[in-house]
Amino acid sequence: MYGTHFGLQELPFTITPDTSFFFAHSSHQEALNTLLVAVRSGEGFMKVIGEVGTGKTLLCRKFLGALDHREFVTAYIPNPYLQPMTLLLAIADELDIQYPQHINQHQLLKLLNRYLIDSYAEGKRVLLCLDESQAIPIETLESLRLLSNLETERRKLVQVVLFGQPELNERLENPSIRQLKQRISFACRLLPLSLSEVEFYISHRLAVAGYRGARLFPHRVVKRIYRTSNGIPRLVNILAHKSLMAAFGEGARVVSERHVRMAVEDTESTQGALTVKARIKRYLTALVSALAPISVLPLINSGTTLITGGPV
Ligand SMILES: Nc1ncnc2c1ncn2[C@@H]1O[C@H](COP(=O)(O)OP(=O)(O)O)[C@@H](O)[C@H]1O
Ligand SMILES: [Mg+2]
Questions:
Q1: Which residues, 6+ apart, have CB-to-CB distance to 125 below 8 Å?
Q2: The predicted structure's pLDDT at residue 311
């Protein structure tokens, strides 16, 4: 890989939501602050909306990491596409609540309620974070509301943050869960990065990965990445990663617009991606030239390793 070539200690643009790379751009920082204030003021339900790849999972991890665990007991549910009973079981597991093997929903709710009361008595707040909330079935959302019914005069005994794509808002419009919708008192939205944020974002991630050299992504290159990714961080990562691979393939020290173009062509869901047919054609052309011994070098230089890029 290109790590050594560019003097990096680790890969700067992986697509896993690693909090050590967190970049506090405006909408992320605002959402994080809002969540921290809302949760301390005892709000029952909060939601964070963002398009695919805008950083919801990363924000969720960052938020959980920013809480004082002497004060908060937390449960993180990554995929709540679950029936009501299964979700309650998942929450019980996350909170380390012991329950008998054969338990019905009523008994489980009683156990959970007891846990919430005990936690309150110990001065702890219980917080549930549900990622991918746009996928929660309506009946399951309703059972979450029932769980959150328990409250003291001063505050809720359980607090819930829903992280989801914009479809979550449509789901919450369903009349059968209007009570839940009314309870969401705090909402924030994650926005794509602006051009200057993409610029800072790229250099921030490079710096975290240990890059100390001269500018690797010139302004016009950043501009191209911004235009084709629409400022969506996951797409920025994919394009930046593939551009570095293309530059490395040519032994270049700086990423050029052409490298980005190659990355874009290889990346579905960006503006400018090649069709499958065009990709196959490109692949075959590369293969043919690879088989001709004299043209091995141009093949390496043309960055054809990008053709097998992973899914977006
Ligand atoms: N504020 C940010 N700082 C650093 N990296 C970010 C930021 N927002 C998103 N990313 C990166 O973008 C990618 C997608 O983020 P993710 O949280 O998985 O998005 P979502 O859950 O909204 O689909 C991850 O690699 C993540 O690290
Ligand atoms: Mg996610």
A1: 39, 42, 71, 72, 73, 119, 159
A2: 35
Residue 50 in contact with ligand 1 by CB distance below 6 A: yes
Instruction: Give how far Cα 83 sits from Cα of 88, 90, 103, 109, 147, Å.
Output: 9, 11, 15, 14, 14
Residue linked to tokens 């204030």: 37
Residue pLDDT, tens place only, 57-105: 999 999 999 999 999 999 999 999 999 999 999 999 999 999 999 999 9
pTM tops 0.85:
yes
Q: What percent of the chain has pLDDT over 70?
A: 86
Q: Indicate which atom in ligand 1 lies nearest the CA of residue 13.
A: 25
Pocket flag, ligand 1, residue 23 (CB < 6 Å)? yes
Residue pair 127/144 in contact by the 8 Å Cβ criterion = no
Q: Kindly report the protein residue whose alpha carbon is nearest to atom 8 of ligand 1.
A: 55
What domains, with CATH codes, occur in the chain?
Answer: 26-190 (3.40.50.300), 193-308 (no CATH)
Which residue from 18, 163, 234 has its CB within 8 A of the most atoms of ligand 1, so it is best to mutate? 234
**pLDDT beyond 60 at 296:** no
**Length of the chain in residues, anyone?**
312
